[in-house]
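quick one before i forget lol
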Amino acid sequence: MTEVILAIGGFLDVGPFKLIATAARASARAGVGHSRKARLKVKTTRDTSSLRLARLMTLAVASTPTRAVHASSTGSRRHRARAMTRATPIAPFEFQTATRMVFGRDAFARVPSLVAELATLEGADATKNPIFVVTGASDRFSAPLEAMFRREIPGVEVVTFHCPKGEPTTASAEEAIRAAVNARCGVVVAVGGGTAVDTAKCVAAMLTNGGESPDLYDFLEVVGRAQPLTRRTAPFVAIPTTAGPGAEVAKNSVLEAGDRKVSMRHPFMLPSVAVIDPVLTLSLPRDATAHTGLDALTQCIEPYVCCMPNPMVDAISMAGIVAGAGALRRVVDDGSDIDAREQMCLCSYYGGVSLANAKLGAVHGFSGTLGGLLHAPHGAICAALLPHSWTINIAALEGRVSRDDPESAKRVLARYAEVARALTGKPDATARDGVEHIVELVKHCDVPGLGSFGLKESDFPSVIEKSKQSSSMKGNPVALTDEELGDMLRLAL
Protein backbone atom coordinates (compact mmCIF):
# COMPACT_ATOMS: atom_id res chain seq x y z
CA MET A 1 0.00 0.00 0.00
CA THR A 2 1.19 3.46 -0.82
CA GLU A 3 0.40 6.57 1.14
CA VAL A 4 0.80 9.87 -0.63
CA ILE A 5 0.73 13.37 0.82
CA LEU A 6 0.58 16.13 -1.79
CA ALA A 7 2.09 19.55 -1.23
CA ILE A 8 2.47 22.55 -3.50
CA GLY A 9 5.88 22.60 -5.05
CA GLY A 10 6.44 18.93 -4.35
CA PHE A 11 6.14 15.84 -6.50
CA LEU A 12 3.63 13.09 -7.02
CA ASP A 13 4.92 9.56 -6.51
CA VAL A 14 2.28 6.85 -6.90
CA GLY A 15 2.89 3.39 -8.32
CA PRO A 16 4.50 3.74 -11.72
CA PHE A 17 4.11 7.51 -11.84
CA LYS A 18 6.64 9.98 -10.52
CA LEU A 19 5.75 13.37 -11.83
CA ILE A 20 7.79 16.42 -10.92
CA ALA A 21 5.53 19.48 -11.08
CA THR A 22 7.18 21.58 -13.76
CA ALA A 23 6.04 24.11 -16.31
CA ALA A 24 8.44 22.95 -19.01
CA ARG A 25 5.85 21.18 -21.10
CA ALA A 26 2.79 23.25 -20.41
CA SER A 27 3.73 26.84 -19.88
CA ALA A 28 3.66 27.81 -23.52
CA ARG A 29 0.01 26.89 -23.78
CA ALA A 30 -2.11 29.97 -24.08
CA GLY A 31 -5.21 28.20 -25.42
CA VAL A 32 -7.79 29.62 -27.76
CA GLY A 33 -10.01 30.49 -24.85
CA HIS A 34 -12.68 33.00 -25.66
CA SER A 35 -10.86 35.65 -27.57
CA ARG A 36 -12.75 37.96 -29.88
CA LYS A 37 -11.42 36.14 -32.90
CA ALA A 38 -12.46 32.74 -31.56
CA ARG A 39 -16.01 34.01 -31.13
CA LEU A 40 -16.35 35.06 -34.78
CA LYS A 41 -18.88 33.10 -36.76
CA VAL A 42 -18.06 32.34 -40.38
CA LYS A 43 -20.93 33.04 -42.72
CA THR A 44 -21.57 30.05 -44.94
CA THR A 45 -24.46 28.47 -46.74
CA ARG A 46 -26.40 26.64 -44.06
CA ASP A 47 -26.22 22.87 -44.38
CA THR A 48 -29.02 20.55 -43.47
CA SER A 49 -28.52 18.75 -40.21
CA SER A 50 -28.01 15.39 -41.88
CA LEU A 51 -25.36 16.63 -44.28
CA ARG A 52 -23.52 18.56 -41.58
CA LEU A 53 -23.52 15.60 -39.22
CA ALA A 54 -22.35 13.26 -41.94
CA ARG A 55 -19.43 15.56 -42.58
CA LEU A 56 -18.59 15.72 -38.88
CA MET A 57 -18.70 11.96 -38.48
CA THR A 58 -16.08 11.55 -41.19
CA LEU A 59 -13.73 13.46 -38.94
CA ALA A 60 -13.49 10.49 -36.60
CA VAL A 61 -12.43 8.06 -39.32
CA ALA A 62 -10.37 10.23 -41.68
CA SER A 63 -7.70 8.08 -43.30
CA THR A 64 -5.24 10.89 -44.03
CA PRO A 65 -5.44 13.30 -41.12
CA THR A 66 -3.57 16.57 -41.08
CA ARG A 67 -0.48 16.45 -38.89
CA ALA A 68 -0.68 18.52 -35.73
CA VAL A 69 2.38 20.52 -34.84
CA HIS A 70 4.86 19.37 -32.19
CA ALA A 71 4.49 15.68 -33.03
CA SER A 72 7.15 13.68 -31.21
CA SER A 73 8.49 12.29 -34.47
CA THR A 74 9.52 15.74 -35.71
CA GLY A 75 12.54 17.81 -34.79
CA SER A 76 16.02 16.77 -33.85
CA ARG A 77 17.16 15.91 -30.35
CA ARG A 78 19.08 19.17 -30.25
CA HIS A 79 15.96 21.15 -31.18
CA ARG A 80 13.94 19.46 -28.48
CA ALA A 81 16.63 20.18 -25.90
CA ARG A 82 16.60 23.87 -26.82
CA ALA A 83 12.79 23.95 -26.57
CA MET A 84 12.86 22.40 -23.09
CA THR A 85 15.32 24.95 -21.75
CA ARG A 86 13.77 28.02 -23.38
CA ALA A 87 12.40 30.37 -20.75
CA THR A 88 8.70 31.09 -21.21
CA PRO A 89 6.31 32.98 -18.97
CA ILE A 90 3.96 31.03 -16.71
CA ALA A 91 0.49 32.37 -16.14
CA PRO A 92 -0.51 32.70 -12.45
CA PHE A 93 -2.32 29.65 -11.09
CA GLU A 94 -3.53 28.08 -7.85
CA PHE A 95 -3.44 24.46 -6.73
CA GLN A 96 -5.27 22.74 -3.88
CA THR A 97 -6.22 19.21 -2.95
CA ALA A 98 -7.17 17.12 0.08
CA THR A 99 -4.79 17.62 3.00
CA ARG A 100 -3.88 13.94 3.01
CA MET A 101 -4.41 11.05 0.60
CA VAL A 102 -4.00 7.41 1.59
CA PHE A 103 -3.92 5.09 -1.42
CA GLY A 104 -3.61 1.35 -1.73
CA ARG A 105 -5.19 -2.06 -1.52
CA ASP A 106 -6.72 -2.65 1.91
CA ALA A 107 -6.38 1.02 2.92
CA PHE A 108 -9.99 0.72 4.11
CA ALA A 109 -8.76 -1.15 7.21
CA ARG A 110 -6.89 1.97 8.31
CA VAL A 111 -9.96 4.21 8.43
CA PRO A 112 -10.65 3.93 12.21
CA SER A 113 -7.09 4.89 13.12
CA LEU A 114 -7.13 7.72 10.59
CA VAL A 115 -10.42 9.05 11.97
CA ALA A 116 -9.12 8.89 15.54
CA GLU A 117 -5.92 10.68 14.53
CA LEU A 118 -7.86 13.33 12.61
CA ALA A 119 -10.25 13.93 15.50
CA THR A 120 -7.32 14.49 17.85
CA LEU A 121 -5.62 16.89 15.44
CA GLU A 122 -8.82 18.87 14.91
CA GLY A 123 -9.68 19.07 18.61
CA ALA A 124 -12.69 16.76 18.30
CA ASP A 125 -13.57 13.84 20.54
CA ALA A 126 -14.67 10.71 18.68
CA THR A 127 -15.97 9.21 21.93
CA LYS A 128 -18.19 12.16 22.95
CA ASN A 129 -19.52 13.29 19.56
CA PRO A 130 -20.90 10.59 17.24
CA ILE A 131 -19.20 9.84 13.95
CA PHE A 132 -21.58 10.62 11.09
CA VAL A 133 -21.29 8.07 8.26
CA VAL A 134 -22.84 8.91 4.88
CA THR A 135 -23.23 6.02 2.46
CA GLY A 136 -25.37 4.69 -0.37
CA ALA A 137 -28.71 2.91 -0.24
CA SER A 138 -27.17 -0.41 0.94
CA ASP A 139 -25.01 -1.20 3.93
CA ARG A 140 -22.37 -3.06 1.89
CA PHE A 141 -19.61 -0.72 3.06
CA SER A 142 -21.15 1.07 6.02
CA ALA A 143 -21.83 -2.08 8.06
CA PRO A 144 -18.20 -3.28 8.16
CA LEU A 145 -17.05 0.30 8.74
CA GLU A 146 -19.36 0.66 11.75
CA ALA A 147 -18.05 -2.64 13.12
CA MET A 148 -14.45 -1.47 12.75
CA PHE A 149 -15.21 1.81 14.52
CA ARG A 150 -16.84 0.05 17.48
CA ARG A 151 -14.03 -2.47 17.71
CA GLU A 152 -11.14 0.00 17.51
CA ILE A 153 -12.53 3.16 19.17
CA PRO A 154 -14.00 2.16 22.57
CA GLY A 155 -17.15 4.06 23.51
CA VAL A 156 -17.70 5.46 20.02
CA GLU A 157 -21.21 6.14 18.71
CA VAL A 158 -21.94 5.95 14.98
CA VAL A 159 -24.87 7.59 13.18
CA THR A 160 -25.34 6.34 9.62
CA PHE A 161 -27.26 8.10 6.87
CA HIS A 162 -28.24 6.19 3.72
CA CYS A 163 -28.58 8.33 0.60
CA PRO A 164 -31.42 7.40 -1.78
CA LYS A 165 -30.46 5.77 -5.07
CA GLY A 166 -29.60 8.13 -7.90
CA GLU A 167 -27.86 11.47 -8.05
CA PRO A 168 -27.53 13.56 -4.85
CA THR A 169 -30.34 16.07 -4.30
CA THR A 170 -30.80 19.16 -2.19
CA ALA A 171 -33.65 17.41 -0.37
CA SER A 172 -31.57 14.39 0.70
CA ALA A 173 -28.64 16.66 1.64
CA GLU A 174 -30.93 18.73 3.88
CA GLU A 175 -32.20 15.55 5.54
CA ALA A 176 -28.64 14.39 6.20
CA ILE A 177 -27.70 17.80 7.63
CA ARG A 178 -30.62 17.73 10.06
CA ALA A 179 -29.69 14.22 11.22
CA ALA A 180 -26.05 15.21 11.84
CA VAL A 181 -26.92 18.48 13.59
CA ASN A 182 -29.56 16.87 15.83
CA ALA A 183 -27.13 14.11 16.86
CA ARG A 184 -24.36 16.69 17.48
CA CYS A 185 -21.95 14.72 15.33
CA GLY A 186 -18.26 15.55 15.11
CA VAL A 187 -16.30 13.74 12.41
CA VAL A 188 -18.00 13.08 9.04
CA VAL A 189 -17.10 9.99 7.00
CA ALA A 190 -18.37 9.32 3.47
CA VAL A 191 -18.11 5.80 2.04
CA GLY A 192 -19.70 5.25 -1.36
CA GLY A 193 -19.94 6.84 -4.78
CA GLY A 194 -20.20 10.48 -5.73
CA THR A 195 -23.67 10.77 -4.19
CA ALA A 196 -22.42 9.84 -0.73
CA VAL A 197 -19.30 11.99 -0.96
CA ASP A 198 -21.09 15.10 -2.25
CA THR A 199 -23.82 14.77 0.39
CA ALA A 200 -21.21 14.37 3.13
CA LYS A 201 -19.41 17.52 1.99
CA CYS A 202 -22.57 19.53 2.63
CA VAL A 203 -23.00 17.92 6.04
CA ALA A 204 -19.41 18.66 7.08
CA ALA A 205 -19.79 22.29 5.96
CA MET A 206 -23.12 22.85 7.70
CA LEU A 207 -21.90 21.43 11.02
CA THR A 208 -19.58 24.42 11.39
CA ASN A 209 -21.36 27.08 9.31
CA GLY A 210 -24.86 28.47 9.65
CA GLY A 211 -25.40 28.17 13.40
CA GLU A 212 -27.82 25.86 15.23
CA SER A 213 -30.25 25.66 12.29
CA PRO A 214 -28.09 25.87 9.15
CA ASP A 215 -29.81 26.60 5.83
CA LEU A 216 -28.17 24.84 2.88
CA TYR A 217 -29.64 27.40 0.47
CA ASP A 218 -27.55 30.13 2.10
CA PHE A 219 -24.53 28.56 0.40
CA LEU A 220 -25.87 27.05 -2.84
CA GLU A 221 -25.10 28.68 -6.17
CA VAL A 222 -27.82 29.60 -8.71
CA VAL A 223 -30.84 28.55 -6.61
CA GLY A 224 -29.52 29.89 -3.30
CA ARG A 225 -27.73 32.89 -1.88
CA ALA A 226 -24.19 31.62 -2.69
CA GLN A 227 -22.66 32.89 0.56
CA PRO A 228 -19.07 31.78 1.17
CA LEU A 229 -18.18 29.54 4.08
CA THR A 230 -16.61 31.41 6.97
CA ARG A 231 -15.29 28.44 8.94
CA ARG A 232 -13.51 25.21 8.09
CA THR A 233 -15.78 22.22 7.78
CA ALA A 234 -16.01 19.53 10.41
CA PRO A 235 -13.25 16.90 10.10
CA PHE A 236 -14.13 14.96 6.97
CA VAL A 237 -12.86 11.64 5.56
CA ALA A 238 -13.89 10.61 2.04
CA ILE A 239 -13.73 6.96 0.95
CA PRO A 240 -14.82 6.48 -2.69
CA THR A 241 -16.12 3.09 -3.81
CA THR A 242 -16.25 4.02 -7.50
CA ALA A 243 -13.46 5.14 -9.81
CA GLY A 244 -14.88 8.10 -11.68
CA PRO A 245 -16.20 11.29 -10.09
CA GLY A 246 -13.06 12.21 -8.15
CA ALA A 247 -15.35 13.91 -5.63
CA GLU A 248 -13.01 12.90 -2.81
CA VAL A 249 -10.55 15.62 -3.88
CA ALA A 250 -12.92 18.21 -5.34
CA LYS A 251 -13.85 21.41 -3.50
CA ASN A 252 -17.51 21.43 -4.52
CA SER A 253 -20.66 19.40 -4.02
CA VAL A 254 -23.02 18.98 -6.98
CA LEU A 255 -26.70 18.48 -6.15
CA GLU A 256 -29.90 18.16 -8.14
CA ALA A 257 -32.31 20.99 -7.43
CA GLY A 258 -35.47 20.26 -9.40
CA ASP A 259 -34.61 20.26 -13.11
CA ARG A 260 -31.06 21.53 -12.75
CA LYS A 261 -27.82 20.72 -11.00
CA VAL A 262 -26.25 23.28 -8.71
CA SER A 263 -23.08 23.48 -6.66
CA MET A 264 -21.96 24.40 -3.22
CA ARG A 265 -18.33 25.31 -3.55
CA HIS A 266 -15.49 26.51 -1.35
CA PRO A 267 -11.84 25.51 -0.72
CA PHE A 268 -12.82 24.61 2.87
CA MET A 269 -14.90 21.74 1.44
CA LEU A 270 -11.84 19.73 0.41
CA PRO A 271 -11.80 16.55 2.52
CA SER A 272 -9.32 16.36 5.38
CA VAL A 273 -8.35 12.83 4.33
CA ALA A 274 -9.10 10.88 1.14
CA VAL A 275 -8.81 7.09 1.49
CA ILE A 276 -8.67 5.31 -1.87
CA ASP A 277 -8.79 1.52 -1.79
CA PRO A 278 -9.09 -0.17 -5.21
CA VAL A 279 -10.51 -3.31 -3.56
CA LEU A 280 -13.72 -1.39 -2.78
CA THR A 281 -14.37 -0.97 -6.52
CA LEU A 282 -14.29 -4.70 -7.35
CA SER A 283 -18.05 -5.06 -6.91
CA LEU A 284 -18.90 -2.21 -9.29
CA PRO A 285 -21.09 -3.51 -12.18
CA ARG A 286 -19.82 -3.36 -15.75
CA ASP A 287 -22.02 -0.44 -16.86
CA ALA A 288 -21.15 1.65 -13.82
CA THR A 289 -17.48 0.76 -14.28
CA ALA A 290 -17.60 1.93 -17.91
CA HIS A 291 -19.52 5.13 -17.26
CA THR A 292 -17.54 6.25 -14.22
CA GLY A 293 -14.31 5.28 -15.93
CA LEU A 294 -15.09 7.38 -18.99
CA ASP A 295 -16.07 10.24 -16.68
CA ALA A 296 -12.69 9.93 -14.95
CA LEU A 297 -10.91 9.97 -18.30
CA THR A 298 -12.93 13.03 -19.37
CA GLN A 299 -11.95 14.83 -16.16
CA CYS A 300 -8.32 14.32 -17.11
CA ILE A 301 -8.68 15.23 -20.79
CA GLU A 302 -10.77 18.40 -20.48
CA PRO A 303 -8.44 20.16 -18.00
CA TYR A 304 -5.46 19.32 -20.22
CA VAL A 305 -6.95 21.03 -23.29
CA CYS A 306 -8.93 23.75 -21.50
CA CYS A 307 -8.43 27.47 -22.02
CA MET A 308 -6.80 28.04 -18.60
CA PRO A 309 -3.28 26.58 -18.45
CA ASN A 310 -1.97 25.16 -15.17
CA PRO A 311 1.39 23.37 -15.17
CA MET A 312 0.60 21.35 -12.04
CA VAL A 313 -2.64 20.12 -13.55
CA ASP A 314 -0.95 19.34 -16.85
CA ALA A 315 1.41 16.93 -15.14
CA ILE A 316 -1.29 15.27 -13.08
CA SER A 317 -3.98 15.07 -15.77
CA MET A 318 -1.57 13.53 -18.28
CA ALA A 319 -0.71 10.82 -15.74
CA GLY A 320 -4.44 10.19 -15.39
CA ILE A 321 -4.89 9.89 -19.15
CA VAL A 322 -2.07 7.35 -19.35
CA ALA A 323 -3.49 5.34 -16.44
CA GLY A 324 -7.05 5.36 -17.81
CA ALA A 325 -6.04 4.62 -21.39
CA GLY A 326 -4.25 1.45 -20.37
CA ALA A 327 -6.79 0.20 -17.83
CA LEU A 328 -10.34 1.14 -18.83
CA ARG A 329 -10.92 -1.43 -21.55
CA ARG A 330 -9.34 -4.13 -19.35
CA VAL A 331 -11.50 -3.39 -16.33
CA VAL A 332 -14.68 -3.20 -18.41
CA ASP A 333 -13.90 -6.64 -19.85
CA ASP A 334 -12.85 -8.14 -16.51
CA GLY A 335 -14.11 -6.45 -13.36
CA SER A 336 -11.94 -8.71 -11.19
CA ASP A 337 -8.71 -7.30 -12.66
CA ILE A 338 -7.43 -5.61 -9.50
CA ASP A 339 -4.40 -4.15 -11.28
CA ALA A 340 -6.68 -2.39 -13.77
CA ARG A 341 -8.99 -1.32 -10.94
CA GLU A 342 -6.00 0.23 -9.22
CA GLN A 343 -5.04 2.19 -12.32
CA MET A 344 -8.61 3.45 -12.75
CA CYS A 345 -8.60 4.64 -9.13
CA LEU A 346 -5.48 6.64 -9.96
CA CYS A 347 -7.17 8.01 -13.08
CA SER A 348 -10.19 9.05 -11.02
CA TYR A 349 -8.05 10.66 -8.34
CA TYR A 350 -5.96 12.56 -10.89
CA GLY A 351 -9.14 13.67 -12.65
CA GLY A 352 -10.63 14.95 -9.40
CA VAL A 353 -7.47 16.92 -8.61
CA SER A 354 -7.42 18.30 -12.16
CA LEU A 355 -11.02 19.50 -12.25
CA ALA A 356 -10.61 21.12 -8.83
CA ASN A 357 -7.71 23.22 -10.09
CA ALA A 358 -8.44 23.92 -13.75
CA LYS A 359 -11.34 24.41 -16.11
CA LEU A 360 -13.27 21.63 -17.80
CA GLY A 361 -15.09 21.84 -21.15
CA ALA A 362 -18.22 21.19 -23.17
CA VAL A 363 -18.82 17.67 -21.82
CA HIS A 364 -19.19 18.92 -18.26
CA GLY A 365 -20.72 22.14 -19.51
CA PHE A 366 -23.65 20.07 -20.76
CA SER A 367 -23.64 17.42 -18.04
CA GLY A 368 -25.06 19.60 -15.28
CA THR A 369 -28.03 20.77 -17.32
CA LEU A 370 -28.66 17.34 -18.83
CA GLY A 371 -28.37 15.65 -15.45
CA GLY A 372 -31.09 17.85 -14.01
CA LEU A 373 -33.30 17.38 -17.07
CA LEU A 374 -32.87 13.64 -17.63
CA HIS A 375 -32.06 12.45 -14.09
CA ALA A 376 -29.51 10.16 -15.70
CA PRO A 377 -26.22 9.07 -14.12
CA HIS A 378 -23.55 11.74 -14.49
CA GLY A 379 -21.00 9.26 -15.77
CA ALA A 380 -23.33 7.96 -18.49
CA ILE A 381 -23.97 11.51 -19.73
CA CYS A 382 -20.26 12.33 -19.86
CA ALA A 383 -19.50 9.05 -21.62
CA ALA A 384 -22.13 9.71 -24.30
CA LEU A 385 -20.81 13.23 -24.95
CA LEU A 386 -17.04 12.64 -24.85
CA PRO A 387 -16.33 11.48 -28.43
CA HIS A 388 -18.59 14.12 -29.93
CA SER A 389 -16.97 16.88 -27.92
CA TRP A 390 -13.69 15.90 -29.56
CA THR A 391 -15.30 15.81 -33.00
CA ILE A 392 -16.91 19.24 -32.71
CA ASN A 393 -13.94 20.95 -31.05
CA ILE A 394 -11.43 19.65 -33.58
CA ALA A 395 -13.71 20.54 -36.51
CA ALA A 396 -14.01 24.10 -35.16
CA LEU A 397 -10.25 24.37 -34.57
CA GLU A 398 -9.34 23.04 -38.01
CA GLY A 399 -12.01 25.19 -39.67
CA ARG A 400 -13.07 28.64 -38.52
CA VAL A 401 -10.53 29.08 -35.72
CA SER A 402 -7.63 28.16 -38.04
CA ARG A 403 -8.81 30.87 -40.44
CA ASP A 404 -9.30 33.52 -37.73
CA ASP A 405 -6.45 32.69 -35.37
CA PRO A 406 -4.14 30.04 -36.87
CA GLU A 407 -1.46 30.15 -34.18
CA SER A 408 -3.96 29.53 -31.37
CA ALA A 409 -5.57 26.74 -33.36
CA LYS A 410 -2.19 25.06 -33.85
CA ARG A 411 -1.40 25.26 -30.15
CA VAL A 412 -4.67 23.69 -29.08
CA LEU A 413 -4.58 21.01 -31.79
CA ALA A 414 -1.09 20.16 -30.59
CA ARG A 415 -2.53 19.67 -27.10
CA TYR A 416 -5.17 17.31 -28.49
CA ALA A 417 -2.41 15.46 -30.33
CA GLU A 418 -0.50 15.02 -27.05
CA VAL A 419 -3.62 13.49 -25.51
CA ALA A 420 -4.06 11.26 -28.57
CA ARG A 421 -0.51 9.95 -28.23
CA ALA A 422 -1.13 9.15 -24.56
CA LEU A 423 -4.42 7.39 -25.37
CA THR A 424 -3.17 5.35 -28.30
CA GLY A 425 0.46 4.81 -27.35
CA LYS A 426 1.43 5.86 -30.89
CA PRO A 427 4.25 8.45 -31.04
CA ASP A 428 2.93 10.01 -34.25
CA ALA A 429 -0.79 10.09 -33.33
CA THR A 430 -2.76 13.19 -34.30
CA ALA A 431 -5.80 14.88 -32.82
CA ARG A 432 -8.00 13.00 -35.29
CA ASP A 433 -6.43 9.69 -34.23
CA GLY A 434 -7.57 10.58 -30.74
CA VAL A 435 -11.15 11.04 -31.95
CA GLU A 436 -11.11 7.62 -33.58
CA HIS A 437 -9.70 6.01 -30.43
CA ILE A 438 -12.34 7.60 -28.18
CA VAL A 439 -15.15 6.61 -30.56
CA GLU A 440 -13.99 2.97 -30.49
CA LEU A 441 -13.53 2.99 -26.71
CA VAL A 442 -17.03 4.34 -26.08
CA LYS A 443 -18.46 1.79 -28.53
CA HIS A 444 -16.60 -1.00 -26.72
CA CYS A 445 -18.09 0.15 -23.42
CA ASP A 446 -21.65 -0.08 -24.85
CA VAL A 447 -22.48 3.49 -23.83
CA PRO A 448 -26.13 4.35 -24.61
CA GLY A 449 -27.01 7.54 -26.46
CA LEU A 450 -28.69 10.42 -24.65
CA GLY A 451 -31.92 9.66 -26.51
CA SER A 452 -32.26 6.50 -24.42
CA PHE A 453 -32.56 8.73 -21.34
CA GLY A 454 -35.29 10.84 -22.94
CA LEU A 455 -33.41 13.72 -24.60
CA LYS A 456 -35.26 15.14 -27.63
CA GLU A 457 -34.22 17.68 -30.26
CA SER A 458 -36.94 19.97 -28.99
CA ASP A 459 -34.95 20.17 -25.72
CA PHE A 460 -31.82 21.47 -27.46
CA PRO A 461 -32.46 25.25 -27.35
CA SER A 462 -33.15 25.27 -23.62
CA VAL A 463 -30.27 22.89 -22.84
CA ILE A 464 -27.83 24.96 -24.90
CA GLU A 465 -28.90 28.27 -23.36
CA LYS A 466 -28.56 26.96 -19.79
CA SER A 467 -25.31 25.12 -20.46
CA LYS A 468 -23.58 28.14 -21.99
CA GLN A 469 -23.74 29.82 -18.57
CA SER A 470 -21.87 27.04 -16.78
CA SER A 471 -18.29 27.58 -15.67
CA SER A 472 -17.29 24.30 -17.31
CA MET A 473 -18.50 25.40 -20.75
CA LYS A 474 -16.48 28.60 -20.37
CA GLY A 475 -13.38 26.42 -19.98
CA ASN A 476 -13.81 24.75 -23.39
CA PRO A 477 -10.71 25.33 -25.55
CA VAL A 478 -12.81 27.11 -28.19
CA ALA A 479 -16.01 29.10 -27.73
CA LEU A 480 -18.51 26.97 -29.65
CA THR A 481 -21.47 28.42 -31.53
CA ASP A 482 -25.04 27.39 -30.77
CA GLU A 483 -25.03 25.45 -34.02
CA GLU A 484 -21.92 23.52 -33.03
CA LEU A 485 -23.34 22.80 -29.58
CA GLY A 486 -26.53 21.54 -31.22
CA ASP A 487 -24.48 19.26 -33.47
CA MET A 488 -22.75 17.82 -30.42
CA LEU A 489 -26.07 16.98 -28.78
CA ARG A 490 -27.45 15.56 -32.03
CA LEU A 491 -24.45 13.26 -32.43
CA ALA A 492 -24.89 12.09 -28.83
CA LEU A 493 -28.57 11.12 -29.19
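fyi The chain is about 45% helix and 10% strand.
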